[in-house]
Amino acid sequence: MRVLITGGTGMIGQRLATLLIDGGHEVALLTREPQKTSTFRLFGWDPQAGTIDPAAVPYADCVVNLAGSSVAEGKWTPERKHEILRSRLDGLELLHRELAKPGHHVRTLLSASAIGIYGDRGDEILYEDSPAAAPADDFLADVVLQWEAAARAIGSLGPRVVLPRIGIVLSPEGGALVPIAKTVRYGAGALLGSGRQYMSWIHLDDLCRLFVQMLEHDAWQGEYNAVAPEPATNKQFTETLAQVMHRPLLLPKVPAFGLKLAMGEMSEIVLGSQRVSADKVLSEGFTFEYPTLRAALESFYE
């Protein structure tokens, strides 16, 4: 099949593209910089301006939408919040416009979502049908609710829509693990806040293998928690990482009030607790290569 990936120049998109090619599929990327050199075919688009190469959507059998500005970069000023939201909605609205036109054969849209939809829920085990956090009280939940709604609207045009709610993606090449591992390596690792908050994570390779399965098999439809089967508390995560990296944890906890002072509202990313279930993904027959945190971390640091 031919797969068109938005946000394909990022960490997840690059690994997914490689796995798809290895699996015998064709891959093209939608990018704002189509003139750049790439091993993949590039199509240009500018979601903010509402422009796209007219050959892009007709190329594809499936579209993978990974476009969206990182929520962890820069304080959440009103301007930054607007950018985070629009960077997700603009691309989907542009895809909706193009997929409403005749002359294409796109049968599947896999559109990234996030476990941020559940908000801070303590020890509660969260399933796909668990209620979302109140959008008025939780910025990330508000973003994800609008993000998913924009993707579902494309389903009314005919394509199968799959919404993987992605947890913390573990990779030494980017994402949340890099700064955490850096502090541990230099003896500055510490629990964040109480340390009791749950971190629902997934190894980058498992996430991309899951995406491939979702694309290849029509049984996958709707929302799925894209997380490993064993969420860890921040304490468990930090201690396991230190053990795998053979480093001691010397510092006391970083107090929650200090994180809130330094990060503002964005501190909810590290202080919020989301204990997310992988049962639905497992019931569809997906097998994790890295089901445990230690195995995932050892794949990077042993």
From TrEMBL:
Q: Which CDD domains match?
A: SDR_a8 (cd05242)
Residue ranges of every copy of the DUF1731 domain listed in the record: 254-298
Domain NAD-dependent epimerase/dehydratase, chain residue ranges per copy: 3-224
- What top-level branch of life does the organism fall under? Bacteria
What is the similarity comment for this entry?
Belongs to the NAD(P)-dependent epimerase/dehydratase family. SDR39U1 subfamily.
Q: What is this protein called?
A: TIGR01777 family protein
Look up and give the organism this protein is from. Hymenobacter ginkgonis
Q: What is the lineage of its organism?
A: Bacteria, Pseudomonadati, Bacteroidota, Cytophagia, Cytophagales
